[in-house]
Write the structure tokens for this entry.
Amino acid sequence: MKQFLNEGDRRLCKKDVRRFLMTGFRIFSAAVLCLSCIVFSGCADTEPKYSYYRSMVLEKLYEQDTLDVRLPGMTEGLCLPTDDTGFDAAFLSAKNAALFNDTDLTVLYSKKMTERLYPASMTKCMTALLAIEHFDDLDTEVTVTEEAFADITDHSSLAGIQAGDTLTVRDLLYALLVPSGNEAANVLAIAVSGSSSAFVGEMNARAKALGMFNTHYANPHGLHDAKHYTTAYDLYLLMHECLKYEEFTVPATTANVTVYGTRNGEAVSYDFTSGNSYIRGYTVLPDGLRITAAKTGYTVNAGRCLVMAVRGKDKKTYIGIVAGISTYDLLYEEMNQLMELCTEEEN
């Protein structure tokens, strides 16, 4: 064939061959890339990606055979999570439980402390924390809107607030933490962020800032949502932070209170009563312990649950969590079993 081609034609043919080969290589590379994307997307976690935390912290943090690997400074003044191998799982029937000496920074008991659980109304600890941190003046008045009732289910825990009522932030904190009002949670959320959905974004951001890396909130109150979860260890981190504020600890230990607001321009009063057996005095803590803050929770999916802080005779602070318990009575029985470990340590 060469005899019919001059020099220019031969150069042209070489270019065509190179162009053909390069095109083929690009097609092959693109096919490989697409195939890789398909394979990895099928294996990908469908949860929101926090790439830095996932690669640098999360994967190592929750391996059962490792201790905490958090960023420098994040663990200062905190207990570190541990695996469960050194503790008796049969000690409690609770699905998840943990007990921390928050003064000496030691773990006294652990049962699936980094396994996800549904927090139910223990969620309201985060709602209260954000409200306290947001408002410089807790006597700021807030007017309740219909939006606060948009996602409230029938027969859920309510404080008796109505749309059009006006209360202070301080009194809304009592409505939130004493009778565990779901509508009060939404009222505070809207007051802080303008909407419940915007507030949820702030809840998740605050959780990450506290190191609650295995927590995700979907609402301000804790009504069940599959994407609303935490862990016993993360609840410890949250309570540790909440204890810094008297504005939290006072309502979180109040048995009965009457607060006042207005409804349609007229004065109205609200009588709030705690459902916590410790706070009501029906269940007595082991000798020498005094409750400093507590929040219960219950949904069908979460079971009975409780996060609580106490102070011992030696002024040390202990934080206990029990979750996924079948009955109300068993909840307090098993929390007292945990608290006995505090008194054993002090004696």
In short: The first strand starts at residue 96 and ends at 101. Strands lie at 96-101, 106-111, 141-143, 165-168, 256-263, 266-273, 290-299, 303-311, 317-325. The chain has two domains: 2-43, 120-346.
